[in-house]
Amino acid sequence: MTNDLKLFIELTEFLISQEHEHPVAKPIDVKELHKTLDLNLKDEPIIDSEFATLLKQVIERTPKTASTSFFNQLFGGRLGKAALGDLLAVMLNNSMYTYKVAGPQVGIEKTILYKICEMIGYPKTADGTFAPGGSMSNYMAMLMARDKYDPQARTEGISHKMTLYTSEVSHYSIAKNASFMGIGRNQVRSIKTNGKGEMLAEDLDRQINADLVNGHQPFFVNATAGTTVLGAFDDVGQISETCKKHNLWLHLDGAYCGSVIFSKSYCHLVKGISQTDSFSVNAHKMLGTPLSCSILVTKNKTDLHLSFSNEAEYLYQTDTDDYNLGKTSLQCGRRNDALKLWTLWKSVGSKGLEAIVDHQFEMAKIARNYILNHSDYTLYSFDNSISVCFNYKDVPAQRLCTALYENAKLMVGFGNFKGQDFVRMVTINSLIVEKDVMNFFKTIEEFEISSDN
What pLDDT does 310 receive? Predict the structure, then answer.
């Protein structure tokens, strides 16, 4: 084990050096992957020196998500204290289903869950869990809502047509989850949005009324805190009034930008969050913990227990249900995803998390101002978003982003809203500073001028 740890330190130092020297890894064409790297598994073991060399080759060609040239996905960067917590979780190797095998790690998870419930104004009856990703957080919320409105579904299956509602630009997991849980994709109603991608409460009310007239059972509304393309925030307060009117479960999908709850300057973007029935947030996005760190909380822990508990004498042999986390989780065996957030939160405090969130909005503001002050750019996004959407000259967004990637210049993606394609730069990497934002635009300009892409 000692030699493995020494090798790990060597590989980590190599990775960090690569991030500085080659912040964008040269991609390998998928057709050439197995020709370029020896990934095959053989009967005989590889010798240690060759093993180390191969691992460095793999590191060299793997996308560098912690580099300051990575603007591609809704995560990025590397915060030391969070990485420390994740490494400790690997070494401790506890499964989080019972207090007996996880001990104080259960207390760490419960502390985070209770603190988030308190922050968003949930009552003492609230609780939550760590889920394997934002999609599964949404899935769990949908299951709790289904079981509340059709309690027999848990044992007898769905007996009538149930309908649910989400904006036309919400995360794709809502439709996918509807197929998993027996509701069906065709019972997902896409609610119209305004020019920013915010759900229109009047269209929500209209579609709910139409389903009631047709004898269907509306049961769930999904609002979004940070849509995946434009980073828009649905008006939770207004939507909650519609949900109260029709007695529907309201979930707030904050996977992308739900961490604004930590910021005094931006928490107004989720005003009304206390009126929701459930809320999810991914700490591996705005808070910069390693993947994955997905949190789901719900106003009434009874709903969590009813939907996910199942007796198992061979497993739950000590302690109470509140500290046997397998009783309220989607999985049985589950890695410890709470420790990395706890080590970060403990080391920087709530004020430190607030600074991380505020910094991302500041970097987005700097990027938008640059675009507005340079005539070669066209801006499509707006204030209070960390998604900066634009086009450069007359270069198609997909063509520009692909060329930058293939030439190892930048990693940035493209998006579409209401038929308009654009580059989508995301300032979620808390390590970037103003010079990195300026270098982003400089790279685009120099690349476009010096190439024929």
Answer: 65
Report the C-alpha gap between 172 and 231 in whole angstroms. Answer: 15
Fold for the domain defined by 344-450: Aspartate Aminotransferase, domain 1 (3.90.1150)
Terminal Cα distance for the chain, rounded: 49
Query: What is the predicted pLDDT for the residue at 318?
Result: 65
Cα distance between residue 66 and residue 12, in whole Å: 12
Closest CA to 242 of 280, 189, 196: 189
pTM of the model: 0.95
* Helical ranges in 33-180 per DSSP H: 33-36, 48-61, 80-92, 99-102, 104-119, 134-149, 153-156, 173-180
Q: Give the pLDDT confidence of 107-123 residue by residue, as tens digits.
A: 999 999 999 999 999 99
Where do we find the tokens 């990025």?
76
Neighbours of 430 (CB within 10 A): 19
C-alpha–C-alpha distance, residues 257 and 60, integer Å: 31
Q: Which CATH class is domain 94-338?
A: alpha beta
361, 266 in Cβ contact below 8 A? yes
Radius of gyration, CA atoms only, the chain: 23
pLDDT digits (tens, 9 = 90+) for 313-352: 545 556 567 788 888 888 888 999 999 999 999 999 999 9
Give residue limits of the domains in the chain: 2-60, 94-338, 344-450
**What does residue 105 show for φ and ψ, rounded to 5 degrees?**
-65, -30
Mapped onto helix, strand or coil, the DSSP state of residue 40 is coil
